[in-house]
Design a protein that fits this description.
Number of helices: 3
Shape: elongated
Helix content: 40-55%
Strand content: 25-35%
Strand order of the largest sheet: 1-2-5
Radius of gyration: 18 Å
């Protein structure tokens, strides 16, 4: 599912226009990005938690040349799904 399909699904579920749902999704993305950039965690009850994690520098290989390269330290985002989300996903199989 891409962003436009997600917006359409949310618009139908909420009974609002595509433009209103797009505004919601865009605002949600901006807000989540800003909160995580500040180093805060986001916890959505029964859905999951988003948090940042620092990764140190580590050696990797260039896939084209096989040459060893040092990857710079960076911050990544981790998502830990909540119990209800896992149950819902596993119920549909």
């Amino acid at each position: 599912m891409n962003k436009a399909e997600l917006i359409t699904a949310i618009a139908q579920d909420m009974g609002v226009t595509f433009v209103a749902a797009k505004g919601f999704i865009d605002s949600f993305q901006r807000t989540v990005s800003n909160i995580l950039a500040e180093g805060d965690m986001i916890s959505l009850h029964n859905f999951g938690c988003l948090q940042t994690k620092e990764q140190g520098a580590r050696p990797v290989r260039n896939p084209k040349t096989g040459e060893p390269v040092m990857l710079a330290p960076r911050t990544t985002v981790r998502f830990k799904p909540g119990k209800l989300l896992l149950e819902t996903v596993n119920k549909q199989k």
